[in-house]
């Protein structure tokens, strides 16, 4: 078996999720290659080559791969597919965008967001917002898989894979990049943070999310939100934790003013320790919280910030 | 421009699901079904494009059992002009649905196809991307905004996408596939007179055979389980007690 992992990178940095995807590839077993596609990605390739268990890093460095648009990236992956039994990517917005396109072009099914590897062709994955776990077996010769990165440990660094340049350049007539607006902040990324503090509708408005800042600073936490807070326009969608947003599994998750709809729980219930702060002592979030504090968040948050 | 909008019949998002005792699947008998929420957003966007004079005709399509016609009637009540039901009682995977939709695209030749980004039952998030690949179209997935003419050329659509860390804007050559994310719009409710009118709108059926597609499956469902339940913990009485527990009991601070 040979596995190709699609590396994810931003601003010349290898994304943390890629080491988790390599972890999933190791659970499947076989030779592991990483594909780094982009424009000016020599540094990313070097970082990918340091990941344990990787034999070869294949680098497609050309302007057409800048911004990781799905159409050229899928065409590139299809050209490489014959060398592999599996292709894996993180179940990030990028992996979710690109891999189904590869699967369709190869006329195979995709297995989305696997949680565990039961065998080289058998995987567990969540369905119905994680309220059920399906075990699925693929009969396709070529397997296209996205990986829930929080479900797999990352591989360590210390490897020394060979780096090989690819001179495959595909055309790109279907789509072109116009621009990007990325949130600028110093906080850790939601998907990989050790501590996450999230606000819900109970925050009242977007301004009040500032109450979470000081606590997040002290804990080195990422800040998230429930879908209700996003729908209410308090905060942007990229902060959403839940079935249709980001899936997180930090050591500590603090839910503030979040009632605990199943769609939200789907995104955070694998956290190691959950704290809920809510004024409604009947809120469903308390059924999954290790520690619940009933009270007014506008009094509790400043006190918590001060005492931490 | 003709707009094709795909909808899926799924379990109502408020319903708590049950796994069958034999672990073969989720039990859907006597469970309330509804249109997938992301498909509602797709229909709404098509209707808004028609209200703006960009879309000239909206064709709603679904793949599924007879009962899925209910969701097509909902789409018609919301503003679709006619509907196509690709009828199959079998469990269809995303790839098969994409192939069937490709068959409908070949027949209808729409200028734009809008789908939900994912269905809340299988949570696959695949069909739109697969359809775009099969139809050799560009894809604007997880859209939070679509626009025409605004900074893009004639024959293109501008799609702003929700990506990890922010937003990305792309221009796609038409015809193209767009999949909807939450913030694209807020779907309206169907009004009673429109629900009555929808009953008289045309609804055609197709079979997979007529579209030249074999319903095949590359995946077998071996088992469905309920995830390990998380047990609720304790309530603490104060911020001090909370900090103490996190430091000394949970050891996460």
Automatic annotation (TrEMBL), chain B:
Gene3D superfamilies registered for this protein in UniProt: HUPs
Family annotation (InterPro entries): ET-Flavoprotein_bsu_CS (IPR000049), ETF_a/b_N (IPR014730), ETF_b (IPR012255), ETF_beta_N (IPR033948), Rossmann-like_a/b/a_fold (IPR014729)
SMART domains the UniProt entry points to: ETF
Keywords: Electron transport, Transport
SUPFAM superfamilies membership: Adenine nucleotide alpha hydrolases-like
One Pfam family matching this protein: ETF
Tagged with keyword Ribonucleoprotein: no
Domain of life: Bacteria
Residue intervals of the Electron transfer flavoprotein alpha/beta-subunit N-terminal domain: 23-215
Transmembrane segments: none
CDD domains found in the cross-reference section: ETF_beta (cd01714)
PANTHER family attached to this UniProt entry: ELECTRON TRANSFER FLAVOPROTEIN BETA-SUBUNIT, ELECTRON TRANSFER FLAVOPROTEIN SUBUNIT BETA
Recorded family membership: Belongs to the ETF beta-subunit/FixA family.
Protein name listed in UniProt: Electron transfer flavoprotein subunit beta
């Amino acid at each position: 078996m040979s596995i190709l992992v699609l590396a994810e990178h931003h601003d010349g940095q290898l994304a943390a999720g890629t080491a988790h995807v390599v972890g999933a590839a190791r659970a499947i077993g076989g030779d592991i290659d990483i594909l780094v596609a982009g424009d000016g990605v020599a540094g990313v390739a070097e970082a990918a080559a340091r990941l344990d268990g990787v034999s070869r890093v294949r680098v497609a460095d050309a302007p057409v791969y800048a911004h990781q648009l799905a159409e050229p990236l899928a065409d590139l992956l299809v050209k490489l597919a014959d060398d592999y039994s599996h292709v894996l990517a993180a179940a990030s917005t990028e992996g979710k965008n690109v891999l189904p396109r590869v699967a369709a072009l190869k006329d195979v099914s995709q297995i989305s967001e696997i949680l565990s590897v039961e065998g080289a062709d058998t995987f567990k994955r969540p369905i119905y917002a994680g309220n059920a776990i399906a075990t699925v077996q693929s009969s396709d010769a070529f397997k296209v898989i996205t990986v829930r990165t929080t479900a797999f440990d990352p591989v360590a660094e210390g490897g020394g894979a060979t780096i090989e340049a690819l001179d495959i350049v595909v055309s790109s007539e279907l789509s072109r990049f116009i621009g990007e607006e990325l949130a600028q902040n110093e906080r850790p990324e939601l998907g990989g943070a050790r501590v996450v503090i999230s606000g819900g509708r109970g925050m009242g408005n977007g301004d009040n999310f500032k109450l979470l800042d000081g606590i997040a600073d002290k804990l080195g936490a990422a800040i998230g939100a429930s879908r209700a807070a996003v729908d209410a326009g308090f905060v942007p969608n990229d902060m959403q934790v839940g079935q249709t947003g980001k899936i997180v599994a930090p050591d500590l998750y603090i839910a503030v003013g979040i009632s605990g709809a199943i769609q939200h729980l789907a995104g955070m219930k694998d956290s190691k320790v959950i704290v809920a702060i809510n004024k409604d002592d009947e809120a469903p979030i308390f059924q999954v919280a290790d520690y619940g504090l009933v009270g007014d968040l506008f009094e509790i948050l400043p006190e918590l910030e001060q005492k931490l | 421009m003709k707009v094709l909008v795909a909808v899926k019949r799924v379990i109502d998002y408020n319903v708590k699901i049950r796994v069958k005792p034999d672990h073969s699947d989720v039990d859907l008998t006597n469970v309330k079904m509804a249109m997938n929420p992301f498909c509602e957003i797709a229909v709404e966007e098509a209707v808004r494009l028609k209200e703006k004079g960009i879309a000239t005709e909206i064709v709603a399509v679904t793949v599924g059992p007879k009962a899925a016609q209910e969701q097509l009637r909902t789409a018609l009540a919301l503003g679709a002009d006619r509907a196509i039901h690709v009828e199959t009682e079998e469990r269809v995977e995303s790839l098969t649905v994409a192939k069937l939709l490709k068959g409908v695209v070949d027949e209808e030749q729409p200028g734009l196809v809008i789908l939900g980004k994912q269905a809340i039952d299988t949570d696959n998030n695949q069909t739109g991307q697969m359809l775009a690949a099969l139809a050799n179209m560009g894809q604007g997935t997880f859209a939070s905004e679509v626009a025409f003419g605004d900074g893009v050329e004639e024959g293109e659509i501008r799609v702003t996408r929700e990506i990890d860390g922010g937003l990305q804007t792309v221009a796609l050559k038409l015809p193209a596939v767009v999949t909807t994310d939450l913030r694209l719009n807020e779907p309206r409710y169907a009004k009673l007179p429109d629900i009555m009118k929808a009953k008289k709108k045309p609804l055609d059926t197709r079979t997979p055979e007529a579209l030249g597609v074999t319903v095949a499956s590359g995946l077998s469902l071996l088992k469905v389980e309920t995830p390990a339940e998380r047990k609720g913990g304790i309530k603490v009485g104060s911020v001090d007690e909370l900090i103490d527990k996190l430091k000394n009991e949970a050891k996460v601070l």
